[in-house]
Design a protein that fits this description.
Blueprint: H1 6-12, H2 22-58, H3 62-65, H4 72-97, H5 100-117, H6 124-138, H7 141-152, H8 155-166, H9 168-184, H10 193-215, H11 228-236, H12 252-260, H13 262-290, H14 296-301, H15 303-324, H16 328-334, H17 336-347, H18 355-365, H19 371-380, H20 386-409, H21 420-457, H22 472-485
Helix pairs in contact: 2-7, 2-8, 2-9, 2-10, 2-13, 4-6, 4-20, 5-6, 5-7, 5-10, 7-8, 7-20, 8-15, 8-19, 9-10, 9-15, 12-20, 13-19, 13-20, 13-21, 15-16, 16-21, 17-18, 17-21
């Protein structure tokens, strides 16, 4: 049927009545987690590792050897995000039209090759060019992973899965710091330490692209690790999401709706506000620690606890949001530690005696990575329609890229050791984040009330159960109630019709 989701074709061609028992649900979920999630974790780890090679290289002499001065180093941090910003509309189109798994594998291969080539770049122009192409290919990773998360997991499961792959930021800070520490001790007459780092990380990425190509399926409909019956169950269990699974038809009306949807610009404002601090701290983090009076190797090692805190904040924030079934409170709470940490760095004198408190302040700032995956989940769980999902995600990452471009330029090496301008601007933005979260929550509540009124006008119940956000115990209670009353409520009639969240009156917004 033209315009419909491929999942609709799969379900229409099955002759059996499809009922997903709780035992089936757990079995299918376990298969999906074991087959899909490890690949996502590996790719995101490598992306963050490859992106972080610049900051590691900065403490091993890259700035001096490449004769970087003024804003040169800041531009090397920003150029990746300029490339990502430019590429987002193209990525959105490709994610609708191309097989997701094969597209992901090609992008991983290309950025691995580019990173390897950075080893031969020895001046600002060469580094700028390779960093630009690195950004072009890496631009696809997070949007692709959001699309994969939407097509494989229920909404109640998505927040923890998004957090899992995003938490690889923290793992990168820990493992990457140790890797950079080890590679930095390799002495070569032909290669500098930072060139060895670029080459090793790049070749590792190229090798992993083969794993992605061989084992990442394009959708549940195409998954080789599921038999025909399990494919049907994997699709049916997503019905309550009201979001569809996969469609290759690009719909311009979805693009228009996404651009006119107030929600879209809420996501944009949220991610833009967190990405400015993120961009600056990611690029200048090791230099901030270095300004406390530590040498190059100790600076690298002291970044390890930063990564550990990131993991705790990311997974803890996701677990709280999943338990609470609300993103707003979790986002607001995650803004508090960075605010405290920035105040500490601004108020405590940068002396050798204050190294301990300064490090504590720096580690408190490292709670901020828990915010971005919650925004990803909040956006993706409140958007339906294949083209609209991809367009909204593209706008989200344009906002992220723009924030990451601006972030490093609020810091400059001329302001060391205090970096006051960057830290004060970051402090203001964390406060702004809390305000935007409050507005977004109220707007989503308004949309739910509007959909309830539409359902009543169509002769439906004003209140419907959102099974996509239920845990296993809640689903069991709901099933027992339905059996006890003899009722069979049809949910998700339009789930696989590839229509948008604003057009589907049965869609329930998650705030």
């Amino acid at each position: 049927m033209a315009g419909k989701d491929r999942a609709a074709d799969l379900l229409r061609n099955t002759t059996e009545r499809v009922i997903v028992s709780e035992a089936d649900n757990k079995r299918i979920l376990r298969k999906i987690d074991l087959a899909i999630l490890p690949i996502m974790l590996g790719v995101y780890f490598l992306q963050q590792l490859d992106k972080s090679t610049l900051s590691y290289a900065s403490v091993f002499g890259l700035i001096a050897d490449a004769h970087l001065g003024g804003q040169d180093y800041s531009w090397l941090g920003s150029i990746v995000y300029i490339a990502q910003l430019v590429m987002q509309p193209v990525i959105a189109y490709f994610l609708v039209k191309l097989p997701t798994g094969k597209f992901a594998a090609l992008m991983v291969l290309c950025w691995g090759v580019v990173l390897s080539c950075m080893a031969v770049a020895n001046n600002f122009k060469g580094l700028l060019a390779t960093r630009f192409f690195l950004g072009c290919f890496e631009a696809s990773v997070a949007p692709t992973f959001i699309a994969i998360t939407q097509m494989w997991w229920r909404r109640s499961e998505q927040t923890n899965r998004n957090a899992s792959w995003y938490a690889m930021n923290g793992v990168t800070n820990m493992v990457g710091s140790l890797l950079a520490y080890g590679l930095g001790h390799i002495h070569s007459s032909k290669l500098h330490s930072y060139q060895i780092i670029f080459l090793a990380c790049g070749l590792l990425t190229v090798l992993f692209s083969v794993v992605v190509f061989l084992f990442m399926p394009d959708s549940p409909v195409d998954a080789k690790f599921l038999n025909d019956h399990d494919k049907v169950l994997a699709v049916e269990r997503l019905r309550a999401n009201q979001m569809g699974v996969v469609s290759t038809e690009w719909k311009w009306e979805h693009v228009t709706e996404s651009l006119l949807d107030i929600k879209t610009w809420c996501w944009f404002a949220l991610i833009f506000s967190i990405s400015i601090p993120s961009g600056g701290i990611t690029t200048f983090g090791p230099l901030i620690v270095n300004s406390f009076g530590f040498n190059a190797f100790n600076t690298i090692l002291l970044n390890i606890p930063f990564g550990a805190v990131q993991i705790v904040a990311t997974m803890g924030g996701a677990a709280f949001a999943t338990w609470n079934k609300r993103k707003g409170p979790a986002l607001a709470l995650l803004c508090i530690p960075p605010i405290a940490g920035i105040v500490m760095l601004l108020c405590i004198k940068h002396t050798a005696a204050n190294r301990g408190p300064l490090l504590v302040g720096y580690y408190l700032i490292s709670f901020y990575p828990g915010i971005s995956p919650l925004i990803y989940s909040w956006s993706s769980q409140n958007t339906a329609g294949e083209t609209k999902k991809k367009t909204t995600t593209a706008i989200l990452f344009i906002g992220q890229s723009a924030g990451n471009i601006i972030g490093p330029h609020l810091y400059t090496t001329a302001e060391k050791p205090l970096y006051r301008r960057g830290l004060i601007s970051n402090l203001v933005l964390f406060v702004v984040l809390v305000i935007i979260v409050t507005f977004t929550t109220l707007y989503l509540m308004f949309l739910n009330k509007r959909h309830a009124s539409r359902r009543v006008a169509l002769g439906k119940s004003a209140v419907i159960l959102d099974r996509s956000m239920m845990n296993s115990q809640e689903r069991a209670i709901s099933d027992e109630f339905d059996e006890g009353t003899g009722s069979e409520i049809v949910v998700g009639e339009k789930a696989f019709d590839d229509i948008t969240d604003l057009k589907n009156e049965d869609f329930i917004f998650v705030y």
